[in-house]
Amino acid sequence: MIPSAFDYAAPATVAEALGLLAAAGDDVKLLAGGQSLIPVMKLRLADPAMVIDLGRIGELSGVRDDGDALTIGAMTPHHQIATDPLIAAHVPLLAKAAATVADPQVRHRGTFGGALVHADPAGDLPAPVLAAEATFILAGPDGERRVAAADFFQGYFTTAVDDGEILTHIRVPKYTGWGAHYEKFTRVAQQWSIVAVAAMVRVEGGTIAEARIGLTNMASTPLRATAVEQALAGAPLTRETIAAASAHAAEGTDPASDLNGDAAYRRHLAEVLTKRAVIAAAGL
Amino acid sequence: MASSKTITVEVDDVSYTDDVEPRLLLVQYLRERLGKTGTLIGCDTTNCGACTVHLDGASVKSCTMFAVQADGHSVTTIEGLARDGKLAPLQQAFHQCHALQCGFCTPGMIMQSASLLDENPHPTEQEIRDGLEGNLCRCTGYQNIVAAVQAAADGTVSLDGTVSSDSEAETAGVA
Q: What distance in Å separates the CA atoms of residue B93 and residue B78, rounded to the nearest whole number?
């Protein structure tokens, strides 16, 4: 399958990319790792007149320690997220979720920021980033602006990134010492999540002091399971209390029905997977 | 009409400079421009892994990359794995463990296995199966493929065509 013809530019800096983007008009796509965009272009579901390849902008790749947070370049590949020592030490949830994305070849090419901007409701990175209360850093013609994860995901494949803007970095607070797990349910290897649950817990003695729970594919955007988080906060660390809290996982969700399962099945999965994810995150 | 771009790519230790259309996929460049038909197109939808090559040493699906993205980079295909006329240990292992039937998936399987062993030289059976999740075999099944990767990792394949008894037993047990 061969995509429609397009003009191609590979800028070396964000400033150069912004200039190209501003000059290109409406019919333009930014190319990150290409693991979603190129298949869509091959199917001619997208046929942009111009493609701006961000792959040669060095400042967009890598993980930086900023004290109380990590700053992750949008072009950092999934494989690096899954194996980076800073992420393993401070936000292991991201490493665990990134390790479940597609397959090894796709993880070598596909990027953290590209997947987040793609905003597939079944994608594995939006829910962990939402649970971690990350901040998105966008560069635009008027300079830089920051968007909280809670405001970033706006609907199916839709984010707060405006025309003319580029996601450059994602700032993720440190959760050093928290337990983390990403529980993904899918029928076959390398596929998207039918439902998945991202969990982080901070255990103090025999008590769950705090919890952060994100849900994948339970609505058109990732969701926080706030009722579960509230039920877990201060609860004794037992399987029974986790099971009772997890029974709230489907509250406020709006899952789709498709060939992989109807909405009721997804609500059931959310409860079961939340229980598993929290138990694993807590090390029980 | 979109204008062509000049790219310089090192493929299997040889440097090539060519004008390409931006929409030309890396796999098409390898096969149709360079004649490297050892790299196969299977599903053409990023699922099957038959087109797997190494980009700067890491496995990628060459059907899901534009040739222009490889400009300035190094590509290794299945045709670049053998050294001095001798099969690489993984190739020898696939041969000796009967890890193929029709052979269509084999170049991609071997390239992904090489990338896996580079990142994890001594994988467990489960790690091998997970490491090959992006490569589909539709005829011979995965058992002997896993055995071949294990044999290559264990160093129980020799280049004179013999396999140590451990590896033979493992292969015989699943035949």
A: 14
- Contacts of residue B140, defined as CB under 8 A and 6 or more positions apart, other chains included, come to B98, B99, B100, B101, B102
Q: Which superfamily is assigned to A181-282 in CATH?
A: CO dehydrogenase flavoprotein, C-terminal domain (3.30.390.50)
> Is B126 near chain A, with CB under 8 Å?
no
Interchain contact B59–A (C-beta under 8 A)? yes
Within 8 A of B25 by CB-CB distance, chain A residues are 2, 42
Which residues, other chains included, contact A23 with Cβ-Cβ below 8 Å and sequence gap of 6+?
none
Domain spanning A62-172 has what CATH number?
Answer: 3.30.465.10
What is the ipTM metric for this complex?
0.95
Query: In the CATH scheme, what is the code of domain A7-53?
Result: 3.30.43.10
- Is any Cβ of chain A less than 8 angstroms from the Cβ of B109? no
* Other Cβ atoms within 10 Å of A193 Cβ, number: 27
| Per-residue pLDDT tens digits for A203-258 | 999 999 999 999 999 999 999 999 999 999 999 999 999 999 999 999 999 999 99
pLDDT tens string A161-214: 999 999 999 999 999 999 999 999 998 877 889 999 999 999 999 999 999 999
For chain A, domain boundaries: 7-53, 62-172, 181-282
Nearest to A104 among B1, B71, B112 (CB): B112
Cβ-based neighbour number of residue A58 at 10 Å: 11
- Confirm or reject contact between B127 and chain A (CB < 8 A): no
Residue B127 belongs to what H/E stretch? helix B125-131
Tally A–B CB contacts below 8 A: 88
Maximum CA extent, chain B: 61
